[in-house]
Design goal:
761 residues; eight-stranded parallel β-sheet; 21 strands; 42% helix
């Protein structure tokens, strides 16, 4: 009999319960005992849902109070020395968020988990790194799962992926050289799991979907062989996901594991290649349900793949599951009450995906006839979606067919148009600005909620937003910022806001997913062709500019980021959808310019994360991603300054593409990495202006003026001072006003100090 499995479940809870618990704990409203008790209750609820849905192999260890990669850093004792004076949750959260006070400690770096929208904490490895086992809490978690009568399958981040996901600190060495020191810690864990009666484990090595050199491939073989030999009583499922294994497929299939999991949503073709490589007695885990999107599975097509595997191996050698962990999916579609009734049946969130897994498993074990009604209903829903007039807009497609190369090119090159821009803006050296958003206080959120509930009239709500906008402008003037923003108080999220105003999108009520820690986002769902019926940002930007003599930036989210941070339709190429969004943003850019806005920021923090995981696929993606940005930006006059923002990305391998965006100013995240990212600009000679983030907004810590001066001095060694801007590393939405004001005043002071130094020289 085939076995229904899961690779992981969302942590945050249907109503973001984990977010609430964490933020209450950080504010001192609950103690550690309450945090742990209530988070364990949330975890048990998630387990029960999976058991009730028929999941036989229950993932355990996928839950986390902040981040699963950080969890494994702690579990193997790889904690950086600067946190040695702390312990327990104080140490754990210091690593994630930093600490405040006289002896403040900076947080660890954060970046995107492969090509998803989830952020992980980047491990820091040193050449003399030592590892020590710290698995007590992990083992207790497994025991709790055993107590509710499940067959837990502990989820273990593999040693090679853990090392590769980290960065070498204090020396130039390959973190994989630490593998021999790390493996005994993993071996000890497997022995302890066997001792408490665990039968199966899930050993995730997602790095197998990346380009691996021979030493990395050898490390995978060495580590897996050693772990398999550590105990003969455990059955290992090797977890791979997010794409095609390609040249790594023979390696994965040859390893001494009980089963190999394949992502057959992103790479269905690899099943045909994998089947002849399955070892005698080995099982194959089929990822048939999309763990990263919200569309209902084509059950008949998924069954076709499963039946291909049944013909080759037999049903009893199959595990049926999602393509990857359901971490990236909202929790429960039934919590939605206002989604368009035509579109609602097209969707499936995490709990509905579990049901799909169960139906597929039943069909394999009992035949298609056992789920005939379900298959018929599924086919009818998919047919209605395909035939729906809601998905196609002829005017959009006609307009896109007439896009020309000239529409994606500025009239003058940067070196010439910057002269016009500087003359128009009259900014000082090291001009100061922010990335866009200012704190969304409890009162802002309350007023928005009242308005959406119909308890606050539109006139009253607009008046409130206008007061907030004016107060934000006055504060920025008082702080001394050179380029202001309106604060974005009318916006709930930088992508959802636009999803609510663009046709072809829908927005859910409770479709939350975790971005990092307690930060959750609610990606809009792109179901049809995209168009902009009315201006989206012009009124509040125009208002802000009317309140001050200083320049105000218009703030937009770019087409690639709107694409990547949405749940995207799966019935046409992503490039086509992105170009449609670009035309809509282009219209908004031109209206902002017509309203007298001389600086327009089109944020593209997701352009790097959208990069395919394999280098051979980069060129095609970058071509349409760059074209989409330029299509959105290049309709303006040369005197209008175009900004963009990118954060938490490794840009080294796409610098030429970033230059091809031809934005006049790019602001980037560099604070957590101590300006490390700017090393990439040394050899590249980036031609335009740069604002390297001088402080980390993802931590409540207020940096000193001296720290920011030091970072700017590092930047000035790489970038000419006349092309340097001064800004935080990201938007300020999630922070509190006191820390924001203190940090920005110090930032302005740092810029002023450097102006004095430059002038004196």
């Amino acid at each position: 009999m085939a076995i229904a499995t899961n690779l992981g479940f969302p942590r945050i809870g249907e109503k973001r319960e984990l977010k609430t618990l964490l933020e209450r704990f950080w504010k001192g409203q609950i103690d550690e005992s309450a945090l742990r008790d209530q988070s364990e209750e949330l975890q048990r609820r998630h387990w029960q849902w999976q058991i009730e849905a028929g999941i036989e192999h229950l993932p355990v260890g996928d839950f986390s109070l902040y981040d699963h990669v950080l969890d494994w850093v702690v579990r193997v004792g790889g904690i950086p020395t600067r946190y040695a004076g702390l312990d327990g949750l104080a140490q754990y959260f210091a690593m994630a968020r930093g600490t405040q006070g006289e002896d403040s400690i900076s947080a660890m770096e954060m970046t995107k988990w492969f090509d998803t929208n989830y952020h992980y904490i980047v491990p820091e490895w040193t050449e003399d790194q030592e590892f020590t086992p710290n698995f007590a809490e992990f083992l207790e978690e497994v025991k709790r799962a055993q107590e509710i009568g499940s067959q837990p399958r502990p989820v273990i981040l593999g040693p090679v992926s853990l090392l590769r996901l980290g960065k070498a600190r204090g020396g130039d060495f390959d973190p994989l050289t630490l593998l021999d020191r790390l493996l005994p810690v993993y071996e000890s864990l497997l022995k302890e799991l066997q001792a408490i009666g665990v039968a199966w484990i899930q050993l995730d090595e997602p790095c197998l979907v990346l380009d691996l050199d021979e030493p990395a491939q050898a490390a995978i073989r060495t580590s897996t062989e050693r772990l398999a030999a550590a105990t003969s009583g455990l059955k290992i499922v090797l977890g791979t996901y997010f794409g095609d294994l390609r040249e790594n497929l023979p390696l994965a299939m040859s390893l001494p594991v009980a089963a190999v999991h394949l992502d057959l949503v992103r790479a269905p073709g690899q099943l045909t290649e994998a089947l002849p490589l399955v070892q005698v007695g080995q099982l194959l885990s089929l990822g048939l349900v999309d763990g990263r999107n919200v569309w209902r599975t084509d059950l008949s097509a998924a069954l076709g793949l499963a039946e291909q595997a049944v013909d080759a191996l037999g049903a009893d050698r199959l595990l049926i599951g999602p393509s990857c962990s359901l971490l990236h999916s909202p929790v429960d579609l039934t919590a939605e009450t206002s989604i368009d009734p035509e579109i609602y049946p097209w969707l499936a969130f995490a709990r509905q995906k579990l049901e799909e897994i169960e139906r597929l498993t039943q069909a394999i074990n009992q035949g298609r006839a056992s789920v005939a009604d379900c298959l018929q209903e599924n086919a009818e829903i998919l047919a209605r979606r395909k035939a729906s007039t809601r998905t196609t807009n002829r005017e959009v497609r006609e307009r896109l067919s007439h896009v020309t190369t000239e529409m994606t090119v500025r009239q003058l090159p940067y070196a010439q148009r910057t002269v016009e821009q500087r003359d128009k803006l009259s900014l000082p050296l090291f001009p100061t600005t922010t990335i866009g958003s200012f704190p969304q206080t409890a009162e802002v959120r309350r007023q928005r909620a009242l308005f959406r509930q119909g308890k606050l009239g539109e006139t009253e709500y607009q008046a409130f937003l206008e007061r907030e906008t004016e107060a934000c402008i006055r504060l920025q003037e008082d702080i001394g910022l050179d380029v202001l923003v309106h604060g974005e108080f009318e916006r709930n999220d930088m992508v959802e806001f636009f999803g609510e105003r663009l046709e072809g999108f829908l927005v859910s009520e409770n479709g939350w997913v975790q971005s990092y820690g307690s930060r959750c986002v609610k990606p809009p769902i792109i179901f049809g062709d995209v168009t902009r019926p009315t201006p989206m940002t012009v009124p509040f930007t125009r208002l802000a500019q009317s309140l001050t003599e200083k320049p105000v930036k218009g703030m937009l989210t770019g087409p690639v980021t709107i694409l990547c941070w949405s749940f995207v339709r799966d019935d046409q190429p992503r490039s086509e959808t992105c170009r449609q969004i670009a035309l809509a943003i282009r219209d908004e850019v031109l209206e902002l310019e017509a309203a007298g806005i001389g600086l327009i920021q089109i944020d593209e923090p997701a352009i790097r994360e959208g990069l395919p995981l394999r280098k051979v696929d980069h060129a095609d993606y970058l071509a349409w991603a760059v074209e989409s940005f330029r299509l959105s930006a290049c309709g303006v006059a040369d005197a209008t300054q175009i900004h963009t923002h990118m954060c938490y990305s490794e840009f080294h391998d796409i610098l030429s593409a970033i230059a091809d965006l031809d934005a006049d100013v790019i602001s980037i995240e560099t604070s957590r990495s101590q300006m490390e990212l700017l090393d990439a600009f040394v050899d590249f000679n980036y031609p335009n202006e740069i604002g390297p983030g001088v402080y980390d907004i993802h931590s409540p810590r207020v940096p000193t003026t001296e720290e920011m001066v030091t970072l700017l001095e590092k930047a000035a060694q790489v970038i000419p001072t006349e092309r340097l801007w001064v800004n935080p590393d990201c938007g300020l939405k999630t922070r509190d006003w006191p820390e924001v004001e203190a940090s920005l005043r110090r930032m302005v002071e740092a810029a002023g100090n450097l102006r004095g130094v430059v002038v004196s020289v």
